[in-house]
Protein 1
Amino acid sequence: MELKAAQQKVDEWISQFEEGYWPPLANLARLVEEVGELARLVNHRFGTKPKKDSEADQDMGEELADVMFVLLCMANEQGIDMDAAFEGVLEKYRVRDGDRWPRKD
Amino acid sequence: MELKAAQQKVDEWISQFEEGYWPPLANLARLVEEVGELARLVNHRFGTKPKKDSEADQDMGEELADVMFVLLCMANEQGIDMDAAFEGVLEKYRVRDGDRWPRKD
Amino acid sequence: MELKAAQQKVDEWISQFEEGYWPPLANLARLVEEVGELARLVNHRFGTKPKKDSEADQDMGEELADVMFVLLCMANEQGIDMDAAFEGVLEKYRVRDGDRWPRKD
Amino acid sequence: MELKAAQQKVDEWISQFEEGYWPPLANLARLVEEVGELARLVNHRFGTKPKKDSEADQDMGEELADVMFVLLCMANEQGIDMDAAFEGVLEKYRVRDGDRWPRKD
């Protein structure tokens, strides 16, 4: 799936409801809620917190995709093209961080 | 850009360094750092906090893409296909939330 | 309750278990999980997200205190005196931000 | 310092400005910003991310206290007594989690 198509899928989903997109601060709160659920899973899997049985089958891909869904909501609500934004970040890293860590031989 | 290609671009970037991918808890901490920068920008733009001049030209697309970059690092480190994970989340929403909010006529 | 006493209550609680304090990155993940639950509640109460009945009686004080509990765990694990740290932050604000916003007459 | 006194210090600070307390979603965004700064420091100290020199003298107590300051802002804005809320959380843990982890002999 193209990033543009992913943004469009999100838009089709949101557009069918009267409520439409939430404003940025409410979207951010939802993003934080989803990052919190990801944190819970990461801690259960890779941290010190013992995993309860009922959470044994949670899926990290699902938690990551839940976060991505809200990111794309925030982008859509602001009319941001994530494809261009992501290319920009890759370019920023190349310029800023290319010499920041030791490279492999 | 396809989501798969975005994951591959991230992998090409990370793979050139000796350090490689961080473990999940360190990646999560970096995700939280990037979400914090997004929160700062959202509050400056849409909240009550007055914007300082030096931050006037920050770009929300860049902050969103910084978050997405770390998400894709976490996915790559775990061998997760975000394309499939995102399709799964769209399907979950269709099943779970299709009747949760009033639809447009 | 004094801040020092609050830190000591946390220490008494944690000290009774074999596991003891978690390391900083795991504590941070738990902090993020608790902040996520707070975000969910804040969005339900003050955002656009409709509140489900089962969450109608959640308590914001409880969510704030859950976050504070993890903060004090992180402080204890590092041997940090939050009383002194909090005084330092108040002093920082006085020096840095005293003229940042318009004062009342 | 008592928790009540800490809440009062925050109130004295905020009350001198025209702007007063922010609404809950804006306070939450600020909390997330501060948690992001804490995450950055924790990753620098205890994670895989290399520490830059300019950040060598950052103080974890300060970052924790910055988070606590915003927590107390949120409590004050909602008229919440953190002393009572914290006692409630300690009691919740005693009831819910007293048998959750192995105790020391």
Protein 2
Amino acid sequence: MAVRTSFPSSRPSLASDAPIGIFDSGIGGLTVAHAMAQAMPAERMLYFGDTAHMPYGDRSAELVRSYSTRIARFLVEEGCKAVVIACNSASATAKRAVQEAVGPEIPVIDVVAPVVEDLVRRGVEHVGIIGTRATIGSGIYGQSLREAHAREGLKGLRVEEWATPLLAPLIEEGWQDHELMDPVIRSYLGAAGWLDGASCALDALVLGCTHYPMAEQAVRRVVGPDVELVDGPAIVAKAVQATMADGDLMASPEYSLAHGHGFMVSDLTENFARSAHRFFGREIPLVAGGPWFMA
Amino acid sequence: MAVRTSFPSSRPSLASDAPIGIFDSGIGGLTVAHAMAQAMPAERMLYFGDTAHMPYGDRSAELVRSYSTRIARFLVEEGCKAVVIACNSASATAKRAVQEAVGPEIPVIDVVAPVVEDLVRRGVEHVGIIGTRATIGSGIYGQSLREAHAREGLKGLRVEEWATPLLAPLIEEGWQDHELMDPVIRSYLGAAGWLDGASCALDALVLGCTHYPMAEQAVRRVVGPDVELVDGPAIVAKAVQATMADGDLMASPEYSLAHGHGFMVSDLTENFARSAHRFFGREIPLVAGGPWFMA
């Protein structure tokens, strides 16, 4: 198997033509990369999936920070102009450490803050969040929402968080449309106390793991038509776009169109290669490599 | 969190009083450790669970070999007289590499060969195997069974292998008695073509992952009363015992009873600490540490 220690890309002459770095513990973050590609067709992305260490959602906060900072430094060494943490578990536990690792000049965008800002801006009151053990255990969504509500002088916020560790493995197995997907989701949301017969008590449900948008239809069937399902990847893509615009970092189409995206994983298996296109929406060439290949 | 680079044990004066090293990608191998403790109460064990890199079942063979050899060397450096690979994925892909890494003086026992020998000795003909992607993808059970049958001049063997990647996450989540466990198992075994209404076509089903014995009752409900469920951990414990006896390596009770087992993991979370007792059958003190802590 071919092993690379860097992406196959040439350095651009302009900082704004540099690629955007994006990473996840595995291939789930490709849902965010896909939304970014839709929103910013001129931008080039270098994606790193840490498939050797996935899933971050079951790991300790210390270990997730250690992995995340190493990847972020790698992406910046590869010439990236910004770093997107496309993983809720890493966003919840490693945002500050990543920003410190890459320095203040490099914008770092995570997947939690943009969703929280969006919910607060629209005044959504009764919010449920589902995610991995690491994300929910951190309490990041509840804490950020409460702080933002207090800062804006808003009232009436109710936040409830519930860990749903089986959903990511089910989606990775391709079971998002399997007949057992709905009962598993129903079991979790019922245990969280959010279901009352066929209706759901929440105003909005945050799909707080980059895998979960793949199972949006199953979640919709369980919660019914009246609950807003928060589309994390699209919101995050908009936040990245705004950050690029604010920092005068938007790519010039004539440069970027001549260069493709790069997709690298720390451990390449047939299963990852096969699954990647489901998350990104089309076939993509994964290469194995990165900062600690065969660590 | 306290971090150790070695087990808290003093070296014995006799080689036979040295501990038996045992490792798994996580805590599933504790089912094997438990069976060993039952079969050999005088033996002391040093257990290493590579929770920072679990699950091995989704990783490439190269990466599983890299992790396994590093752990095996660590266990021998800690003074172990033998190494038990208590993980089907590692047994399937890394047995030879581990033996080479620790040298010919150290017996290495894996969890596949003893089960294959037991099935062949008893002449079981129609065998199904379920396991992780790595184990099933390696084809190790089918290949070993066919070779052993040919060597013994036996006929009539039928082996079928099927990957069931969701079972380990379900068991880790504590869902082995959940109402959705049976339908998931039924879905897999049905897809494998082994179920005909309420009956199962197999003579024996190998639970080819150290997690699976935890779900034995659910598997039994799905396959009915007539299929033998192969009790891997008990068979492996007997093989370890025989190896100790053959090599004149059995511990003297008066030494070992004064020393407890050691249980180390490469990443310690509350969830692992909570789950470990389910797999070992009683509370055990996990410590974080090992050859690449915070790698």
